[in-house]
Amino acid sequence: MNLLSIGGSDPSSGAGIQSDIKTFSSFNTHCLTVITAITSQNTSSFGMIEPVSQKILKNQLESVISDFKIDGIKIGMVYNSEIIKVLYQQLKKFKVPIVIDPVLKSTTGGSLIKSSAIKDFREFIIPLATIITPNKFEVEVLSKTKITTENTPEKVAKIIQKMGAKNIIITGIETKNNQISDFVLEKNNRYFISGDKISKINHGSGCNYSAAIIFALAKNKSIKESARFAKQFTYNSIKNAKNLGMGIAITDIQKYDKINLELSDAIIQFVKIKNIYKNIPECQINFVYSKQKPKSTKDILGISGRIVKAGRFVMVAGKLTYGGSKHVATALLTMNKRFPQIRSAINLKYQNTTITKIKKSKLIVSSYDRSQEPKNTKFKSSTIEWGIKSAIKNTKKVSDVIYHRGSFGKEPMIIVFGETPNNVLKKILKII
Questions:
Q1: Which of 77, 78, 97, 362 has the smallest count of CB within 10 Å of its CB?
Q2: What is the reported pTM?
Q3: What is the DSSP secondary structure assignment for residue 242, as one 8-state letter?
């Protein structure tokens, strides 16, 4: 896959072209670049800007467009009207996803666009956007409207949509309970995507977000899937930010782990399910996802702690680590040996009402009797392996759900299996 980043050069490699190269490389994606301006900045201050000429900008674009199949484009810093108009003329007929990151100022204080160019930005750049990703400050400047109780994020986003952007994501809206949300306005849909706030000033998170969005779009993900992916990716980059200079921290791009990101996103969606606390057993919950052809539980990603409840509140206690789960991971490993396509699983509280819903659904269900367990496996870690093998030994079809009614000292349990964490989530929503 080839992704094109159009923007300014940042010598600190915290943002701009250099940041996008790091991000796209972490996705094993080839990054093409077109530089619009050279900046002089570091983690403490902002110096000069030298925009490139229209001639070299056009030549850069022609060079990459004529030689490469481009799967997606990200546009960041554009600086002046001359640059804006060249980009519009070269890209207006391009039939690939385009993400606009409307960078107006640097975290270290520098202005990244001339005030005289904002009118042309609205007229020529915004209409190119498959998605535009302004933060609160940027959307207020572009829309000439402050976000207030009366002027909601939706109303302000609609102003940008009328300028020609197909989809708008306003990032970094602070909400209650230490959450930070992104408001998404699609053509016929609107919603918030929320996550935990990290109180850390950083350099590069906006670039990380928009770069992750264009990667997901180029992989044919939906707007919602792309926004969730980008939020989780950016959260991780902020969490791992490092103080490499004498000023603010620079976000750190870890090697892309698709398994980690998919499971992280699924867990976020799981804990938001209405009344999900009612389905958490006494032993709590683990949600796991394995590598291809796992040889042991060390090849299976799980929570080092558990998904736990405190009253009606559900939270994740622990980090995702390979080998972080034993019980659910062993169940998955046993299932995977028989059905290699099954790579994800979660345990739920045993309830008669849930079993009734499972049996009424079109899901394939199996069970085993703990009272029939051989003495040599009782009270040992191999007990779950014996149970799963017993449940599937006489079936040629993959079981979506396996349960047991418990025994002396053993809590009854339901385990839901699937090909991916998202597949597991869809099955859960059918039975709770």
A1: 362
A2: 0.70
A3: B
